Every structure is written in structure tokens, then in C-alpha cells.
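Course assignment 3, question 2. Fill in each field.
Student: A.L.
Task: Predict the tertiary structure for the chain below.
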Amino acid sequence: MTKLYSLFGGTTTDTEVKAVELNQVIQMEGYSYDRYVVYKITHDEKYGYHYHLINLRTLDMQQSEIIKPLSQKFGIGMYYDENNIEFKTYEEVAELLAKAQEKKINRIEKEREDEKQREAIRVIGRKWLEENLPEDAQAIIIACLKQDESDSQTDYYASRTTRTVILGFSKHKKDIFSEMRKHASNFEETAHLAKYNEDYEHREKYSMGHGYYLGESYYSGWIIKKAPIYNRENTIKEFSYVAGCSDGIYLKKIKDTHSYKRTCIGEHYTLFEIVDYSEKSIALFGDTKPIKDLLKAMGGRFNPRLIYKADKRAGWIFQTSKREELETILKLKAE
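Answer field:
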């Protein structure tokens, strides 16, 4: 005899006894209160009867091992009204099953297409992080938009991160709120956290806590925190999607340092800009196609998605030590 225990100390259910029949209508109690129809019943020697269900509202397909009469209701679960047993016709269930299977196929195809798009974005993000994540970085400072999914009636507290952006990099793993506030101004939606407010500083480094974070609430709105880098490759993989999104990076605006003008063809002029890109690199922007071979020979790396003034632009990355040589080359070609 196979027996399963329902949650929260409910009565024992013998799964070797068939609870309902094919095409019977049941309902979920204690959560969505949706109604379902049993379209297939299978049996397993170890676990007993298994019920395959179609949600009459959403057409989603799911399974359940335990279906009990309403007279034995105890908490969230699947139940049937033993005093008012309801069935769908075979034709109705067949039509519902066809629609449910079509929906499932469409959902799987969409998930595959979405995953292809996400992977394409991750490829861009991985490349950006490989070229722009400082070698001495010990943490990434990120902002997360939290959506509250708590249920106060059941004392259930939870949230979901709906968006993440990169605000900057840190040379240490220490949680320092002044550092978080400094980067908050990089992004318009977190700029309000740049101003000191003791109530925004949360220290929850204890069991079941959320660590150190800057924000009004962990469950709703924007928060800023640090993501330590313990393994560079793992970090690049983890944040590749964020870095690849067109609205995923909000670093401090790049400081313009030099501009040069040169003659390309006829009366057409191109403005070159050399900017400090990081502590160890500079970036060159402009119409570089005519001299791309020269720039490559100098050790430059072309990147179509460099961050420039909070926007993504094509440009070349060089070591800082190449600045003087690069300036000389551009001056020789300047008008």
C-alpha cells in the first residue's frame, strides 16, 4: 500500500486508491482557486495513481499525486466536491487537450527563440566584460530593481529582481556605503540614493539576511550592492547578459582629453577623440576605417560597443602607454 502525507500535517492519503475519474472537474483551494479537468490518469508501482490536469482558465498542463474530497480540506491543494461531482464530455476534454498542447508547443518554441536572443546578448556582454572589466577589480557595483511578491496575510516575504544594471567596479570587496552612494549618481533611477540617508543603509549579514545593500527596501524599488569577484570567468559569465543589454551599463561618464582633425577625402574632415577609458587604457573614437590596419599594428583592439558618455559607440582600445605614439600618428595626419 502506497501512502503519501499531505503538507502541514494533514491526513494520510493512500495513492493506491484512485481518487477521481477521467474527465472529472476538480479545483485548487487556498491559492488560485482555478478549476481543472483530469485528462489522463497513470499508475506507478512505487507512487500509485498520478493525475494529469488541464487548467480550464489558462490551459496550462500540470500533474498531481494527491486529490482529496472537500470534506477533508486542509491547506493548499487539489480537491473535488464529493457532493457535487462534475464531469466534462470526452469531446470537450479532447478539444481542451488539443488547445493545451498547442499552447505548450508555442510556449516551448518561444522559449527557444528567447534563449537564442539571450545568448546573442550574452555573447556581446562577455566580449565587453573581457575587454573592459579591470584586471584589478575585486567587485562589481550593481543596481537591482526589486518587485515585491510578499503576501502579508500568510507572512510570506519575497521579491523578484526584474532588472539589473552595472554602475561601476571596485578594487576591494568591502561593503562601503559611501562607495555605493558615489556610483548611485551614474544612473538616473538610482540617483536619489546618492544622498546620505542612514535609513537606506542596510546591514543584514546574518543567517537569512540579504547582506549589505543601499535602498529603501529589499523587496521593492532600486537597491545598490556589491557583487564580489572570486573567479573572473564566473563573474563574466554571470553578468554577461546584463553587460550585453543596451540599457545594462551606466558607468561614470568618460572624460574627454584630446581631439584631432584630419583630412580623409577631399574636403571631408573627421574628428578624432582620445579619452581616458580606464586606469590602464585609453579609447579612440572617430572615422578610423582608413587607418584601421595601422591602429591594429599598434596593438589596438576594435570594439563596436564601447561605453562613451553613457552610450555605446564603436572605437579602439589601447594601453595607456600608447597615448603619446597615438597622438603623434594623428598629428602627422592632421590637417
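Instructor remarks: Helices lie at 90-132, 177-184, 232-238, 240-244, 292-297, 323-333. Residues 254-269 have pLDDT under 50 and may be disordered.
Grade: pending
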